[in-house]
Amino acid sequence: MRLIVVSLVSLISLSGCAMHAEKASLSSGQIGCAPSNITISEDSVTFNTASWKATCKGKTFYCVRRAYEDTNCTKELD
User: What is the pTM of this model?
Assistant: First the structure.
């Protein structure tokens, strides 16, 4: 039983990392940073919308992607 729980927790952790990597890739073209330089935080997913905060080189962007639409990122106000 313990092995199943550990395996499930590991799978959830890996899928979270994969989702952050995907969102870094989606953000990259919008904010002009390589995906490897982007940090994803404040990740939220609802029925048909995903939103997150992408940070690169000290600049923060708020990104959103709705079902069947392109990703849009807007620079944080100064």
Answer: 0.75
